[in-house]
């Protein structure tokens, strides 16, 4: 297939693109290489892709409607995976307009392009952050998610609503994927594992929020990518049993689906740090701090819908995943 992947220089986008290329798909990568974090890391990820003859690199932003439309007109992708977004819960408290531009304006541009150029299936990144103040565990795609705790989460919830509208009005198959705390090689420098590793190796303290009383459904990058590919290959279809008397948020009479992709094994943050310490052979100096605004104490993914519909459940334990990250980090940074 010919697949357009937005955010192709990103953590998930570059890993997904590499897998698609390796299985024989042609991929058009769309990324603006913004400087939210180290551009050199993004360029190094792209360098892995550019050796494949099936890869086309397009440099532009989602909010640039003309450039996005030109890419669709020129390359005519059959399917689209939208991973480009302004990421980060905490950053959304300081720079909200970046989230409106990329996650809302950019996403409607994607929807319009998919509509007008006959895309067979749009798969897009949502986030576990949409569960917000929900406390019933595990988080289910069948639960109501109307109480986000950050603007980032609100934009991801908005993406799900916008996608449903296009599925309903234009019969555009759309699938939203709620990712749970993705980690692994080539990861984002603003995320905990990266920050902790850098600080521990430098002998500096790590900031441990909520005094370490967090649980996270840490999900290894390869497991995330496998889930994305399986969902991409199964085009969203209407749910004939859907009823407006008891509406299921995860399905619809329209060709619309939502899935969690998480390990279904929440891990205490202190255990995660302990595994990292073992892999590094060093102890962390912990700076215990209260919970940050916009954060949630626990995440835990119910992945039953993913198992039922595409026969997949993430399985990489943190001991294996963290060890792989540390090996990559030491090699990449020559530490």
Short recap of the structure:
The protein is an alpha/beta fold. It is built from 11 helices and 13 strands.
Provide the succession of SSEs: EHEHEHEHHEHEEHEEEHEEHEHH
Gap between N and C termini, in Å? 40 Å
* Lateral arrangement of strands in the main beta sheet: 3-2-1-4-5-6-11
Percent in helix? 40-55%
Beta content: 15-25%
Question: Which regions are unreliable across 5 or more consecutive residues at pLDDT < 50?
Answer: none
Rough outline: globular
Overall mean pLDDT stands at 95
Provide a count of the helices. 11
Structural class: alpha/beta
Number of strands: 13
| Radius of gyration, CA atoms, in whole angstroms | 19 Å
- Biggest beta sheet summary: 7 strands, parallel
Tell me what the structure shows.
The chain has 335 residues and is of the alpha/beta class. Helix content is 41%, strand content 16%. The chain is built from eleven helices and 13 strands. The chain has helices spanning 11-22, 39-49, 65-75, 91-94, 96-116, 151-170, 192-202, 221-233, 269-280, 304-310, 318-333, and strands at residues 2-6, 26-31, 55-59, 79-82, 121-127, 174-179, 182-183, 205-208, 215-216, 219-220, 256-261, 267-268, 285-288. A seven-stranded parallel β-sheet has the order 3-2-1-4-5-6-11, sandwiched between helices. A two-stranded parallel sheet has the order 7-10. Strand 1 (2-6), helix 1 and strand 2 (26-31) form a beta-alpha-beta unit. It starts with a strand and ends with a helix. The mean pLDDT is 95.
């Amino acid at each position: 297939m010919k697949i357009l992947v937005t955010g192709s220089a990103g953590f998930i986008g570059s890993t997904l693109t590499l897998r698609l290329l390796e299985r024989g798909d042609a991929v058009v990568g769309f990324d603006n290489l913004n400087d939210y974090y180290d551009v050199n890391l993004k360029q190094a990820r792209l360098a892995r892709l550019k050796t494949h003859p099936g890869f086309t690199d397009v440099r532009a932003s989602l909010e640039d409607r003309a450039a996005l439309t030109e890419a669709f007109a020129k390359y005519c992708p059959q399917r689209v995976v939208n991973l480009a977004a302004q990421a980060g819960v905490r950053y959304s408290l300081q720079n909200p307009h970046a989230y409106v531009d990329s996650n809302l304006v950019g996403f409607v541009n994607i929807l319009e392009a998919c509509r007008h150029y006959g895309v067979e299936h749009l798969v897009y990144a949502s986030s576990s952050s949409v569960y917000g103040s929900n406390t019933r565990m595990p988080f289910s795609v069948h639960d109501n998610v109307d109480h986000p705790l950050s603007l980032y989460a609100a934009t991801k919830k908005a993406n799900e609503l916008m996608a449903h509208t296009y599925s309903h009005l234009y019969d555009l198959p759309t699938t939203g994927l709620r990712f749970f705390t993705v980690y692994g090689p080539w990861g984002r420098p603003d995320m905990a594992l990266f920050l902790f590793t850098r600080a521990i190796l430098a002998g500096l303290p790590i900031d441990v929020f909520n005094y370490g009383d967090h649980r996270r459904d840490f999900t290894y990058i390869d497991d995330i990518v496998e889930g994305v590919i399986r969902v991409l290959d199964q085009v969203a279809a209407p749910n004939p049993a859907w009823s407006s008397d008891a509406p299921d948020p995860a399905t619809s009479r329209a060709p619309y689906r939502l899935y969690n992709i998480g390990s279904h094994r929440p891990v205490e943050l202190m255990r995660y740090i302990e595994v990292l310490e073992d892999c590094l052979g060093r102890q962390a100096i912990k700076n215990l701090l209260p919970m940050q605004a916009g954060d949630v104490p626990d995440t835990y993914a119910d992945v039953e819908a993913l198992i039922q519909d595409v026969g997949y459940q993430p399985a990489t334990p943190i001991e294996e995943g963290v060890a792989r990250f540390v090996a990559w980090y030491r090699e990449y940074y020559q530490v």
